[in-house]
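TICKET: design request
STATUS: open
ATTACHED STRUCTURE:
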């Protein structure tokens, strides 16, 4: 397959020819997932996003909507970017880094629903076979009548109500949110209510996001996040009382503000790498290990940490997760044998 840079070059040249010929420029429509494959990526980590943005800018192109925060299987248009003003692309000024509800897979998956006149057995069968706690009650893809759930069914049956049809056991109230709503502001509602219905830009109910979906999304980040915290903790133990404040201060990047360190806990992963790169300092650790290999793995952790802190709706690469687990295990073994 032609690499991404070449494809962008060919697209930019075609658009230029169309404009010069007096025709309206045509964009190329592709899913975010396929767009990432152009460049050899499967996820939108920080490195992938930065590289692709630079390539788009080189060819005066942009994506609409922005590929970074759009659902990975949604379609985007790769199109001509507006003219650059004062050295800044107009699209760069308009990039919205907010993670939207639409970045969650469940928000883009047509919900399983029932109609008000369906028998109750239809609803319970669909909930049981799909392991759902609730279903939207809908007359059409745009018209929601309410929600039916195990709670709404149980409440009515406990009161002696007859529940022959879905309409007899549904709650007419429901929580709905637009697909473009910020995920951060929607999470509280989702956790409180247990779900939200998501309405797309075409007014169709595009999905239902449950508390379980949100939990799964953040669980993808929690494991790597905990591994990174563990590794940083072991590093602090490793260098405890081995270096002076001045030596640690010298490990700060030259661009860092002149703020005095109080101890190793103030160092970043980059600081640890710069500190241990110096052979005379490394030798104080009394570790019979290869210094270059050790620092190289710390640099892996530093790069992965940047991706973890940069919320990626696709999760981090499985290879990166495996690297973190192996490095955390390495430090545990050092502690177990008394090397730190």
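STATUS: resolved
RESOLUTION: sequence designed for all positions
ATTACHED SEQUENCE:
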């Amino acid at each position: 397959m032609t690499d991404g840079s070449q494809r962008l070059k060919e697209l930019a040249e075609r658009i230029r020819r169309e404009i010069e010929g007096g025709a309206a420029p045509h964009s190329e429509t592709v899913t975010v997932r396929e767009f990432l494959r152009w460049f050899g990526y499967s996820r939108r980590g920080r490195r992938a996003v930065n590289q692709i943005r630079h390539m788009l800018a080189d060819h005066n192109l942009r994506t609409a909507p922005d590929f970074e925060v759009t659902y990975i299987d949604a379609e985007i248009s790769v199109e001509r970017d507006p003219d650059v003003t004062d050295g800044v692309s107009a699209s760069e000024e308009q990039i919205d880094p907010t993670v939207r509800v639409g970045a969650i897979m469940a928000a883009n998956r047509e919900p399983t629903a029932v109609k008000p006149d369906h028998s109750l057995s239809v609803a319970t069968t669909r909930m049981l076979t799909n392991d759902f706690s609730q279903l939207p009650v809908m007359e059409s893809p745009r018209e929601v009548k309410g929600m039916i759930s195990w709670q709404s069914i149980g409440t009515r049956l406990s009161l002696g109500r007859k529940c022959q049809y879905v309409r007899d056991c549904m709650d007419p109230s429901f929580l709905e949110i637009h697909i473009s709503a910020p995920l951060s502001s929607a999470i509280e509602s989702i956790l409180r209510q247990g779900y939200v219905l998501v309405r797309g830009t075409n007014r169709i109910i595009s999905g239902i996001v449950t508390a379980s979906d949100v939990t799964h999304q953040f669980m993808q980040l929690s494991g790597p996040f905990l591994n990174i915290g563990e590794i940083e903790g072991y590093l602090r133990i490793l260098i405890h009382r081995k270096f002076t404040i001045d030596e640690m201060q010298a490990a700060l990047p030259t661009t860092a503000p002149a703020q005095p360190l109080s101890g190793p806990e103030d160092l970043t992963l980059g600081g640890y790498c710069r500190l241990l790169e110096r052979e005379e300092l490394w030798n104080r650790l009394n570790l019979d290990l290869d210094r270059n290999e050790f620092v190289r793995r710390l640099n892996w952790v530093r790069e992965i940490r940047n991706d973890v802190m940069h919320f990626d709706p696709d999760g981090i690469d499985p290879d990166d997760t495996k690297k973190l687990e192996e490095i955390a295990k390495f430090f545990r073994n050092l502690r177990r044998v008394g090397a730190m």
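CLOSING REMARK: The longest strand covers residues 134-140. Residues 211-239 form the longest helix (29 residues).
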